[in-house]
Amino acid sequence: MYEELEHIREACLTCHKCPLGNTRTHVVFSDGVPNAKMMLIGEAPGFHEDQQGKPFVGRAGQLLDKIFTAVGLSREKDIYICNTLKCRPPDNRDPLPAEKEACRPYLNAQLDILRPRIILLCGRVALTSFLPQAQSISRVRGQWFDGPYGAKMMPIFHPSYLLRNQSREKGSPKWLMWQDIQEVKKAYDQLEG
Ligand code: URA
Predict the structure, then answer these.
(1) Which of 10, 17, 53, 126 is the most exposed place for a label (fewest CB within 10 A)?
(2) Which one, of 131, 138, 130, lies nearest residue 156 by Cα?
(3) For position 82, which CATH number holds?
(4) How many angstroms does the Cα of residue 191 sit away from the middle of ligand 1?
């Protein structure tokens, strides 16, 4: 498994299938444990991720780590983290359809090799990559959908959205995220093997 993943990562390192290959500092392939039962898929690398070559290491990533830690999960032992795009779009603009299409085979290969049992679609871009019919993240977050290879798949808010919405009141994005992450932990604990 690790060898197959390494081949894909190496292909990404020299990838120029879209123009982001010319502007990136580093390819951001993944972080966390490759044999994890849970995969989190984000949007695309931002400034810090591009600098360090690791997903979710900026402010949003730190919040994500805090959220997982609160339910006893961590990227060191439970989660494999990647993005829909492996390279940073300039000025953190939304990924273009052509960029998503060019990069998708890498994500598909990650899914095919790892076959996670739980997939978390973090934010709107990841959501629409898998559930193009979904109207908005607010409508579908916290619900389970059928994912690739029999996975349970849940859309969740992106941590940058939570950083822009600081309220913790009942019904607020942070409160909803707390409900969702507890549901994720419950499903994770119920996985066998
Ligand atoms: N936002 C994402 O969606 N992915 C990252 O890796 C960092 C920020």
Answers:
(1) 10
(2) 138
(3) 3.40.470.10
(4) 27
